[in-house]
Design goal:
The chain has 2 domains: 181 residues, Thiol Ester Dehydrase, Chain A (Roll), CATH 3.10.129.10; 142 residues, Thiol Ester Dehydrase, Chain A. It is globular and about 60 Å long. The chain is built from 3 helices and 12 strands. Strands 1-2-4-5-6-3-9-12-11-10-8-7 form a 12-stranded antiparallel beta sheet. With 323 residues, it is mainly β. The protein starts with 42 loop residues before the first strand and ends in a 7-residue tail after the last strand. A hairpin with a 2-residue loop joins strand 5 and strand 6.
Length: 323
């Protein structure tokens, strides 16, 4: 196991030393959460409770360059990115996964409580209670894991969620990916089509729109702007999962007919690598009502004849949410 110390007050290597009684906050090392930009690191520390139970701390900014507020509330997709980062952090810092190994996300789901998402006069400090299960090893190395998270803010549960992933060494990853391994974001890719109108998908800037219209009102072509500073924080050889979740969000908003809708839960599954050099068709449709008070939208992404991801997005039919 990696002997990196874990504590709720973890400081990054650039933080100065102060007496123990002085509470200080730094982000965790960006390498542990697979980000190139320190500004995109949401986690601030972690503490081991036992071998499969951990506490992780995080902070959401009042204003994020991409995950912007929705009706005065923090963007629900900050929850997805926080959960994603927590899994990567614990894998490296507590389960000993070497830096440079690849993480293959299988699924990621979350539900938020809009009552506790309000943007206030200070950043939102969060505490995540994380429990790991289905831990599988290949020899001494972590091969795959599932984890569930409960996110607390000011003593209230703001969100719940979970994810599962597999880990691959560089050699295994090269075998899995074949000739596509290491072909980074700058490689040949289909030209981007024009964006749908930004307000239709809750966006102010066309550069943040990830859908391009087609002749079918219920289908779009995915726009993969590999220069996007958040969705492509660093070069990769496939379409990132967070871009696919963003596509699901935008498709759901168009389907529901309002870019201002507050979306409260996402259940995502990643079936295959979404390739940068192939067009990806995103389709959406409203599901029959099976939960009181919720509208559900099924979003799928296809490349050729293969489904690469799916996501069920839920939104309260009554959008008159309490503040």
């Amino acid at each position: 196991m990696n002997d990196t110390p874990g504590s709720a007050g973890l400081h990054g290597p650039s933080c100065p030393s102060f007496p123990a009684a002085t509470p200080l906050t730094c982000t965790v090392p960006k390498e542990f959460v697979h980000r190139a930009a320190v500004a995109e690191v949401l986690l601030t520390g972690w503490r081991r409770v036992d071998a499969t139970h951990f506490t992780v701390t995080a902070q959401w900014p009042r204003l994020h360059g991409f995950y912007s507020a929705v009706q005065g509330r923090h963007d629900p997709l900050l929850t997805a990115e926080t959960i994603r980062q927590a899994g990567a952090l614990l894998s490296h810092a507590e389960f000993g996964v070497p830096l440079g190994h690849q993480f293959l996300m299988r699924d990621l789901s979350f539900t938020v409580d809009p009552r506790h998402l309000a943007v206030t006069g200070v950043p939102a400090d969060l505490e995540l209670d994380i429990r790991c299960s289905d831990i599988r090893r290949r020899g001494s190395e972590l091969a795959s894991m599932r984890y569930e998270a409960v996110l607390h803010r000011d003593g209230q549960i703001v969100a719940t969620g979970g994810a599962s992933f597999a880990c691959a060494s560089p050699a295994v990853y090269r075998r899995v990916r074949g000739e596509r391994a290491g072909v980074k974001s700058s490689a040949h890719r289909p030209p981007m089509g024009p964006p749908v109108p930004p307000p239709d998908v809750g966006r102010a800037a066309a550069s943040d729109v990830v859908l391009s219209p087609t002749d079918d009102a219920h289908a779009w072509r995915l726009r993969t702007d590999t220069t996007h500073p958040v969705l492509f924080d660093h070069p990769v050889d496939h379409i990132p999962g967070m871009l696919l979740i963003e596509a699901a969000r935008q498709a759901a908003l168009v389907t529901l007919g309002s870019g201002d809708h507050v979306l409260t839960s996402f259940t995502s599954s990643f079936d295959l690598f979404a390739e940068l050099d192939l067009p990806c068709r995103v389709e959406a449709g409203i599901l029959p009502e099976d939960f009181a008070g919720l509208s559900s939208v099924l979003v799928t992404g296809r490349q050729g004849d293969a489904q690469v991801f799916s996501c069920v997005v839920n939104a309260p039919r009554d959008q008159g949410l309490p503040g």
